[in-house]
Amino acid sequence: MSVPAQAPVPAQVPPSGILAPTLPSPPTSIPWVGLLAVLLGTFISTLNTRFSSFGLADVRGAVGAGFDEGAWITTAQTAAQMFVTVPAVWMGAAFGPRRVLMGASIAFAMVSLITPYSPNLATLLTLQFLGGLASGFFIPLTLSFILLNTPPKFWAFGIAIYALNLELSLNISASLEGWYVDHHSWRWIYWQNVPLALAMSLCLRHGIAIKPITIRPPADFFGLVAGGAGLALVYAALDQGNRLDWLNSGLVWGLLGAGSVLLIGLLVHTLRAERPLLDLKVVFRPPLPALFLLISFLRLTILSTSYLIPLFLGSVRGYRALETGDTLVWIAVPQLLFCPLAALMLRRSDARMVASIGLAFVSIACLAVAYSLTPIWGSTQFLPSQLLQALGQSFALSGIIFFGILHLKPQDALTFGAVIQTARLFGGELGTAFVTTLARVREQIASNHIGLHVQLGDARVADRLSRYGALTTRTIDPPGAIERGRVVLGAVVRVAATTQAVIDGFIVVAVLAAIALLIVVFRSAAPEGPASPLPLFTARPSRPP
Predict the structure, then answer these.
(1) How much is the pLDDT for 401?
(2) DSSP secondary structure, 493-513, as one string
């Protein structure tokens, strides 16, 4: 049986389109089933994006795509998520999050069901784009649902669970993908979304009340299309930049130029429109710009585990996806304990302190790896530092988002969800592009420096080649032994260069986390509000005489 509808609340016409809806009085109870639904949507969206990255080789092989063509498989999905960010916020205000999320979850289940049957790359890219459009609705409406449908005193717990969802899905995807490929089929990378999306739809059906729409915001079609397309084109340029050598590629220039023109057009249109789609005063009012920057920084630091560790274990140690995933799972599991701890600290202390502690832990964990990493490291050597980083990431993400919430007015909840979605996707993409390019360049530099000390004719090099050759041959074959020794020596140089690149990556991530820490420290205290922290110690009422 559905949750009964709430009585309509008298409303006044908002000054701008979708960003100032009239809200009912704060709720007094938690809609647990509805909360489960929107958090499940966040989990599905992030998990599916990571699946496409880890299982990309298997998907490319299934449709006969080469490396360059197959690189667009993940871009099609994530660019679609970026495209739908602005329309998702408008549709959530115009039709209600319940109706929008139910339609999106069912559509996502259908697309995920048929995607593995794609006969060619063009069909797969089309279905990836459609799946991205559907899953792109999930995250922008999650935070707004938490803020509008739970009592303010429980917002800290909702935000901590939201952060847990992102962390958990990022770190378990490699293990699940490897298990699917080893024991079943790559098709389960997509099929696992079907029961999850249908469960989300059922939870939405029975857990979110049907609320009448008192005021439907106008459909600013130019704003919807220009905003979504501009963000998607810029995102696609960032996603393909490392492969196409950035500004040396005409395609990257074209994507960046077209996206920038659309975004500038949106800005001009917004300033001139009587009832614009976006309320720029809300978007650019503190602390949202700083919040956007901090979340982007934090998304980059998360990549030190989700990219640099798999790069090392795969390239240096030869681990498969399932073995790499076993390491990342042990980073994800402690989040179940850290989540309630982060929420309790948010309720009892300043959100800036919680975020600062988290960013400090992240920086220390990255430096610990950078100054200890050697080519013989395996999974267990990463665990101590990554457990500390997992704790830090939970605290930092929860603290930063909650600090932004304390500055919000109720009518800004939908805008806040859109900003978080944009920061999450852009921050993740900028982080991926930055860390990938950094690792590639630093590996090339390290390989070149090591190569300067490996000269043919050098007695030490000749001795090393003969030893390597002797270890890799069991027959008397001097010419073959020397050639095999050269192959082994080349592999040793590559391993050393990759290790140095990963070390440099961790150092840079530690520095960026320290910069983010300074930004948090110098922020002003949040204003008092319904979700403000409780005092650490409360005085007991005195007894009557």
Answers:
(1) 84
(2) HHHHHHHHHHHHHHHHHHHHH
